[in-house]
Amino acid sequence: MRTLLYTTAVALLLTFAACDTLVEDVDDPINTASDEALNSADQVDFLISGVEGRFASTHDRTGLFTSILSDQFIFGGSGATFPTYRQLDEADINLDNNSVDGSLVQLGEYRFLADELLRRAEAIDGLSPAEGGWPEGEADPARARMFFKAHFHGALARYFWAAFYGRDAQEGGGVISELDSPEDTQRGEFVPSDELYQRATDRLEEEALPRAANFLGEGQGYDSRVIHTILARIALFQGDLDAARSYAESGLSEGDAPFQAQYLDRTGGGANFWFDAGGPGRVQTLAAPRFFNGDDYLNEDLEAAEANRIPVVPNFDGDGNLLGHRQGLYNERGAAIDFATWQENELILAEIELREGSGDPLARINAVRASHGLDDLAEATLDVLFTERDKELFTLGYRLVDQRRITEQGIDVDEDLHGWHRDADAWWYLPITLAERNDNPNF
Amino acid sequence: MHKFLSQFITGVLVLFMAPGLVVAQSGTVTGTVTDAETGEPLPGANVVVIGTEIGVPTDVDGTFRLQNVPAGDQVIRATFVGYFQNEQDVTIEEGAVTEIDFQMEPDLADLGEVVVTGLGIQRDRGQAQVSVGRIDADDLSDRASFQDVSQLIGGNVAGVNVQAASGNIGGGIRFNVRGGGGLGGDGQPAIYIDGVRIDNSEIAGFGGGGQGISTLADLNPNDIESIDVVRGPAGAAIYGTEGANGVVLITTKSGSFSAEPTFDLQYRGTFGFNEQGDQTFDPDVFDDGDINRGELANDLFRRGAIQQHQVSISGGTESVRYYASVDNRQEDGALPNNSGDRTNLRANFEAFPIDELSVRASAGYTANVLNRPENDNSIQGSIGETLLGPTPYFLTDSLAIFNIEDVQRVNRFVGSVRAEYTPIENLTFTGSAGYDASTRRQDRTRPVGFSYPGIGTTGERNFFNRNNEQLNADLQAQYSYEPVSGVAATSLIGGQFTQQTLRTSFGTAQEFATDVITNIGAGDDFTTLNEDFLNERTGGIFAQQELVFGDTYFLTGQLRRDVATALGEGVTDVWYPSASAAVRLDRFDAIPEVFTLLRPRVAYGATGNLPGIVDGEALRYNARASGFGAGATIGSVGNPQLVPERVQEVEAGVDADLLDQYSIEATYYYSFANNSIIDQPLAPSTGFGAGTLPSNVGGIETQGVELGVGLTPLLRENARLDLNLTYAYQTSEVTDTGEVENIFDGFDVNVIREGLPRSAFFIQEVIGAQFDDQGVYIGPEATAERQVLGQPIPEHTGGLRFNLTLFQDLSVSGLAEVALGHQVYNNTLRFAAFDGTNAERNRLVGDLGELTPGTDEYRATAEALARTNPNFQGNFIEDADYLKMRELSVNYDFSSLIQEANVAGVSTLRLGVSARNLFTVTGYSGADPEVNFAGSRSLSRGQDFLTLPTPRQFTINVTVGF
Fold it and tell me: So what's the ipTM on this one?
């Protein structure tokens, strides 16, 4: 009997062990890799491209939605069906707006990947070359690039939150939840725009600038000039004209290539979002009617000089009736979107000079116009300046910030032309939606 | 007691040592076992010498021979499923042959039925300790035509509600078994065909607007003999993880053993059509003022032809039986680009090469071609383009829509081998292996020359390949013995192994230069190309001990351990216990003889859901292409702290049979799940907003009552009426969602939230209208917070099946199904309000403009108008109670006439007509209260959004046997 009991026990134990071994012996997935597998200097370019990809998908979506929320674009066109876009146009946005959810998801992942890049860069610092760390005894360019990109994009992610998103209709800011692991239940608190702007500024000034080299691909000094233009924009948005001037004076200058978000010429997450939301793919948003037959905007024939700067394409319904004009900047899925240009830098300086009564703002405005083959203007006023910004920064979403700050900062312009165009208490930020609030007890 | 334990342990251990336990004997007993009423021999009956290990099954002639029976007085017992056991005292003389015969009295309580209580183990219905639903599929498909296997189940088993997600041929199917089990997993039962754990996925591939294709659409209902449904963990715990949402066991036809070789050839033909009614979309509901959109949408429909041909052979000899069939079903849907063409081949074979060994092989092959229409949440769907939009076909031209070709081509093999070996009496080893392999190819083409939003006029082609292989292997050893007199025991141990290997690949190209060359490489713009791979395994070992005291008291205990593949944290494992008991009260003298069965029973079982293969790994990255190059982005988010979900259920019930005419089965169940694995949405600020975190944060309680009544109120020589009534009530309450307050579906309508039923509609409710100081209507007034406005899962479901047979040969049968206590979100009507095609809203807007603000009539109209405002989804939650005349058929069996006329070669001739979904009684304003726009696996449930309703179907059926 004892033998039988032993035999049974051994048989059961063997069966237990065999089960465990059998189910572990499987082929790994081919489409994902573990977190640890990327802790290697060999993976730096792959990691950086991931961050940059999310920069692009944040910039296009945020730009499109804020363009509709501003007076620059309207809900409409041959493919306009999304109630969520209609809410943006009317600045009457429900907190369950799943279009805004989409842009928040991109921004959240962008911020995470940028911060994770920094954490991983520091982790790789501690590894020997045999363990996947940097080569010993030399300044590895990949290491420097990794730190620069981590700080640069970490700053831009915070800037996006600050400039475009808000907790309440007129309370801008964002939220950053830094978790030890995905199952960590801690959630970040709401951070007002000013503080997020400051965090972005600090990262750019104190971490990215000292590491600037040729990481953005347009030669020595370009990195620095891009950063200065972005810093100038942030300062301008905050109404700090002195700081804005200081930064802008070291910013991009005529001849510099624009710093752009790059897109992939195919469908899916890598394509320019405008293509399928307000372009050849599908038209759900049209340029505001004021872009036609208005003072200083396009004429009926669309071949007026401004067509180079704000190209548009007529959009018709199924019966051939003209519905309006969609943007014509991004007619390909792979069309790049400007993020910072020397023209914007010039207009920042021109605005400061107009508001402070100094310098030669007209020359700056005309230089920008000349870059598009436009005639010189005879006079520069703040109204003219904001009209130029409206056109120069077409589709980028910055118009929304301009409309806000005209009210917030009391800038002396024609409010009918450039001020807030909806009810005074309407949303002038993209809301932090239920996607965040449902999982964040701080809201 | 000591003796009992000793024999009990010996019984278990004999499983391992049985071959060595044969001992010397000294006499022989021979005889036959026959049916006492008919005199027919009973092959397969068990004959044992009580108190020994000696026993044999009867052969095909019902004869047996017991050797080495100890000399002296012995008790010989014969048992057979569906009969009372029979014992006889005999005196064995050394070296002599003693002959005894057994005439077995049928046990009417069993009514000749056998149920499968778990892992393919068959038990007399009279001995079952859990509620098992059995469907005589062969009988049903003799009377009517069924498109797929799900149609055989709906309405026939209490507590099992089967919903088609749309009227698409081959469309998704959702089983709702006892309210859905735990919160984890897909809520669907495990489905076995002849021991093969089959793939029960819904395959969406590219597009479709939300609807997928059900893999169950590959199966031929005409090949099915019977279906057993084990509804909950109390009965299905022996299946372990797979039993959390019940188990459906399908047995295909197999022929029959016969002393004389038999060969039957049968042809079955079905001819008919699908149609939608001319009022499918109510013209009074959809009207933009210029064009009646309801009529326009109804004009889309056509009569879609159905024809099905099956040739089958079946038969057997003493030791072999077989069944084989070839079947082709061609079916057109009610929309022009919806069709199916399915060919099934089946070959089943069972043999007893030696007395101790039986082998069964089952093989089915399917070639299925399904053409799926675009509808639901799609701007290229014909229903949306007629009911919605400022003008019909506003976004996509009708010709372009109907030129979209979306075809899935499936080749599938499902096969199994099962062997039973009985080396000594009462010890049986069973081994089986099953294999389900399918290749599925979707080709979707938007031809050149038509304009589609996002695609232009240069066309688009998508391909999607899915190769799935599932393997399961089972091994069991079962030993029956009598530890003490009057106690029958059966010990069982076994193991189960499954493996799935799934590969998918897909691609998209646009900008084709010609419509005569359409391979994907001919497109100039290759926009998508990707692939995926999954390989996972599960293993389980289990033991079961069953005790029967005096054929009256039944007690069973089970224990199972499951393990599964998990990356990052190794395997996950869990133990599942279960126990059940029943008492045959009808065997007590105190119970009136009118009860041929009266059996209370109670059962407890635990099952659960194991985490997915990557669920335990905190973070995995994928490679995503962008304009900056391929980069690392979040692939999946996991939770290293995850443990398996546990679903426990207690079931209690009573089964009663009265006389030969009435049977009642009533069951109450209470199940509760904890540690449910919920895919918890994560705040975008975490960086993981695109994914979800599998978390043990869920708990849900479900309870309900199931009632089955079978009665024969009319029983005359030339008339018989059988009625089967099923009724089920279920209610659920989510008890825990951890730190997450709400888990919404993609449209923020259905919610998982503490205190609410599963998937409740949780939305702001419009409570009136708002007016300015002048009394002018300025918009709806809604509740500040979301409210529970209903739930998509019916609280009450039921079916009434009747079968009236007149003069033996004419039968009229039907099935009516009812569902009560649920709601549907009519998103079609909501979007009609956005687009100006909602007739009621249009009328109210017009009326309001003509009324004077401040008047009662103005206010009443404004109040009504507020309740049509599309910005508030709560305005479009509607009661969706329905009664459906699901089946109605009339059949006449000419076989006796044929035989009397002595028509050469023809033995059987049956003719019938049948109708399906003949009519629906409902207050729901949409087309069909059953459908769901997002298919059959989504979190979104009970949402009707431009979804094709299930069609009416009429068929003529002809069966000729040779």
Answer: 0.93
